[in-house]
């Protein structure tokens, strides 16, 4: 069939379907409504029925269009807003009226023709912005933007911006707006002339029939900049400072600034020129802008009685100046700027004299003194200086710190002398150094001023100490082979008067006892395998690096460690019984002496001769420390007196060596070692000395120590 449209436009093919797009509706058509938009005709031999559906019919905006089902006439019933619906998409159908079969179905587009019915609208009606007075011409001030809802890309939506008015109008400032809506200025701002501008901006479209527009207001606040320099107007204060003091403020500097108070353009900061010693600082009073000068480092009258300073002042914010010299029609104007010239003032600070304490030019000294030097020897001399040259004081020296009391100082000259012998090994000496502090005092002033000097005295070491065994009683296990134990010695002297030491066994035992190695701080004492379990006393020669030596007794307990792991514990138990035996012997001797004395003074019979105590003791002492294979026991024989006054004593078997279980049944006679002085043996004769070495191997008399090879 043939489709006949009342429009002269042909059908268009859109994505495999035919579209009727020759119908247009003018936006905001004034009517009257309804009016005929057009007609669709079909050339058929049978009756057809027309239908429309889609936007404008049964979809939003509903009820805009209708079609006569018999004639195909399309009518418009009310206005359409282009900004809401720029095109109406519909579906056209023609049905066979006899059987309702679809004869034709086509897409249909109705275009809404835009008219200039929307003015440009600014995003904001009022723009409130702030700019600094020091801003340079050409700087961006604010940007405005207007939007037109009419069809994009048409004259109806093309916008032009224009500045309508500026209030107040100043001769040195002019605003301009760019096509983008950015506003800038020419010339210079001056806060004192105008601190706020009100700018009216218009946005207008280019509609052909009618041009629509709207306006916005810009409130431009000018922030006061630093275009006025602060000026120093004067000073207050005495300008006097007492030497040796700090923290005082002798002067206050006064400044004025006509910029806005409490802004960076008004606030000031001060600087000082001529303060070579760094004695002063100056800070700003935040409320008044005054500069307060303060002494932060004490001044010295003797060094400089006057201080000449220059005080400068400037604002926290950088200074600027702007002056318009020409206003050409095109481009920016011609402006000039002037450099800043800070305000300044010269001041004089007078230093007042005060009593200064004496001082030591060399307050820390080091000297070297020999250990055990001559008493009264000169050590060093400290000299203090009185800085008060105009009125010198009498100075007196004294020792403030001398822990060991080894030194004295001449109170007038400051000379230091040795008062007591120096001992490098004293606890008051640290790493060979002894510290003395000397005090100097002004005696003719009140309160007296003082100062101190420290003398570090290095004491040169002397070889005045001998090597000493750390322990003089050791134990060693009995073995069929060679066995050993460690021996350690020490010497309070320092190098080279101490170790490593040389060790040597001298006397009768040197064939069966030796040191391996024989040189060092700790060596091994080696026992020959032929030495049996017993208690031995060795004489050990210990020499330092300089060959100075000492002879010391070393007591050694040897035992079978399988029976008793601690030989010394076993021996000490036996010694308790041995000490009781000694007590009995001493008691018996004293009884004999008392009886003899009584017989000599009170008896009427013939006087008897005195008993020879040494012989008695010699006959009653038992030999010990005898090496004999197979026996190692302690037996006590009876004491036989040469005179009838002696009591009889039946010998008893106490125990065998290494059998301590029966000791609990005995009643030991013991002399506590803390109540008995082993030096008493020195006055009881050779026999008791032998007995003492057996019973107390750890003790030795002072005469047993040999210094420099002599006993």
From TrEMBL:
Membrane-spanning intervals of the chain: 577-600
Keywords: Calcium, Cell adhesion, Cell membrane, Cytoplasm, Glycoprotein, Membrane, Metal-binding, Repeat, Signal, Transmembrane, Transmembrane helix
Domain Cadherin: from-to ranges: 48-122, 123-232, 248-360, 361-469
One GO cellular component term noted in the UniProt record for this chain: adherens junction
GO BP annotations, alphabetical order: adherens junction organization; calcium-dependent cell-cell adhesion via plasma membrane cell adhesion molecules; cell migration; cell morphogenesis; cell-cell adhesion mediated by cadherin; cell-cell junction assembly; convergent extension involved in gastrulation; homophilic cell adhesion via plasma membrane adhesion molecules
PROSITE patterns: CADHERIN_1, CADHERIN_2
Protein name: Cadherin-like protein 26
Domain of life assignment: Eukaryota
Chief place of localization: membrane
Pfam families linked: Cadherin (PF00028)
InterPro entries, per database record: Cadherin, Cadherin-like_dom, Cadherin-like_sf, Cadherin_CS
């Amino acid at each position: 069939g043939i489709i006949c449209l009342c429009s002269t436009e042909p059908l268009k093919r859109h994505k495999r379907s035919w579209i009727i797009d020759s119908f247009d509706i003018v936006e905001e058509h004034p009517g009257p409504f309804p009016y005929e938009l057009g007609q669709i005709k079909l050339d058929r031999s049978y009756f057809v029925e027309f239908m429309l559906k889609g936007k404008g019919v049964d979809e939003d905006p509903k009820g805009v269009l209708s079609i006569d089902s018999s004639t195909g006439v399309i009518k418009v019933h009310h206005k359409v807003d282009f900004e809401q619906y720029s095109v109406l998409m519909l579906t056209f159908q023609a049905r066979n009226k006899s059987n309702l079969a679809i004869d034709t179905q086509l897409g249909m587009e109705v275009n809404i023709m835009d008219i200039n019915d929307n003015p440009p609208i600014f995003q904001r009606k009022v723009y409130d912005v702030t700019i600094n007075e020091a801003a340079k011409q050409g700087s961006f001030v604010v940007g405005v933007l207007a939007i037109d809802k009419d069809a994009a890309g048409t004259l109806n939506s093309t916008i032009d911006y224009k500045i309508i008015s500026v209030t107040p109008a100043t001769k040195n400032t002019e605003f301009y707006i760019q096509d983008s809506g950015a506003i800038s200025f020419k010339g210079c701002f001056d806060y004192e002339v105008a601190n706020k501008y009100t700018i009216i901006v218009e946005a207008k479209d280019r509609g052909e029939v009618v041009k629509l527009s709207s306006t916005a207001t810009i409130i431009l606040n000018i922030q006061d900049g630093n275009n006025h320099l602060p000026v120093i107007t004067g000073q207050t204060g005495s300008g006097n400072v007492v030497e040796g003091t700090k923290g005082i403020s002798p002067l206050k500097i006064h400044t004025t600034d006509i910029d806005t108070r409490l802004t960076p353009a008004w606030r000031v900061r001060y600087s000082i020129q001529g303060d070579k010693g760094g004695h002063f600082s100056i800070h700003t009073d935040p409320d008044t802008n005054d500069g307060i000068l303060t002494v932060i480092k004490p001044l010295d009258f003797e060094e400089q009685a006057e201080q000449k300073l220059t005080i400068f002042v400037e604002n926290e914010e950088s200074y600027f100046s702007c002056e318009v010299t020409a206003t050409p029609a095109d481009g920016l104007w011609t402006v000039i700027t002037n450099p800043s010239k800070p305000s300044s003032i010269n001041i004089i600070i007078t230093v007042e004299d005060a009593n200064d304490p004496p001082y030591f030019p060399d307050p820390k000294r080091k000297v070297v003194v020999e250990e055990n030097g001559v008493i009264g020897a000169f050590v060093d001399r400290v000299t203090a200086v009185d800085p008060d040259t105009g009125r010198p004081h009498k100075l007196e020296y004294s020792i403030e710190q001398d822990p060991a009391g080894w030194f004295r100082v001449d109170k007038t000259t400051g000379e230091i002398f040795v008062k007591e012998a120096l001992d490098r090994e004293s606890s008051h000496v640290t790493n060979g150094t002894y510290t003395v502090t000397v005090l100097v005092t002004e005696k003719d002033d009140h309160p007296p001023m003082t100062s101190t000097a420290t003398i570090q005295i290095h004491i040169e070491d002397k070889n005045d100490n001998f090597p000493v065994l750390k322990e003089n009683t050791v134990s060693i296990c009995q073995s069929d082979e060679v066995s050993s134990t460690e021996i350690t010695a020490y010497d309070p002297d320092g190098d080279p008067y101490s170790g490593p030491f040389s060790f040597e066994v001298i006397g009768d035992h040197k064939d069966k006892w030796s040191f391996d190695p024989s040189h060092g701080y700790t060596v091994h004492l080696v026992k020959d395998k032929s030495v049996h379990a017993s208690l031995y006393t060795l004489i050990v020669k210990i020499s330092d690096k300089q060959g100075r030596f000492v002879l010391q007794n070393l007591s050694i307990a040897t035992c079978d460690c399988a029976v008793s792991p601690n030989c010394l514990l076993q021996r000490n138990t036996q010694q308790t019984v041995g000490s009781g035996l000694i007590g009995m012997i001493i008691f018996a001797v004293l009884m004999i002496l008392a009886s003899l004395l009584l017989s000599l003074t009170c008896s009427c019979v013939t006087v008897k001769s005195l008993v020879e105590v040494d012989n008695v003791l010699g006959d009653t002492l038992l030999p010990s420390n005898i090496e004999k294979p197979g026996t190692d026991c302690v037996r006590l024989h009876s004491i036989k007196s040469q005179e009838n006054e002696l009591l009889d004593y039946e010998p008893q078997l106490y125990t065998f060596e290494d059998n301590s279980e029966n000791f609990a049944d005995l009643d030991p006679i013991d002399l506590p070692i803390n109540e008995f002085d082993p030096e008493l043996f020195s006055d009881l004769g050779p026999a008791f000395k032998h007995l003492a070495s057996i019973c107390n191997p750890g003790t030795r008399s002072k005469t047993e120590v040999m210094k420099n090879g002599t006993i």
